[in-house]
Hints:
By secondary structure, this protein is mainly alpha-helical. The protein is 66% helix and 3% strand.
Amino acid sequence: MVDVVLMQGFSNLLYLLNLALIVFSGFALVDAAIRREDGYRAADKKTKPFWLIILGLAFVVNLIFPILSFLPIIGLIATIVYMVDVRPALRNLPGGGRNRTRGGSSSDGPYGPYNGGR
Length: 118
């Protein structure tokens, strides 16, 4: 009886860990998708398609395989590298490295609006 309760508790713990890995890698994938492509070059990191492929594979692996296999661990390492190294470098860029869909002017320079020397 105690063995059954312990195994069920361990199974629930693994399920929650797997769910947390899926959410974590999904967040990293979405975050990588909304960053500007030139931001990756400006931050001297790999390209945006590279990170989208790596993080997409990590997300799919976390969906398919259980946490006890080695593939989700590799995906977790790739996601941690993105979150700890690449994401902060992109966020430190002017504008946060995000795509701009509105705002700004055609006369805006990298440090604000250009007023023609006035």
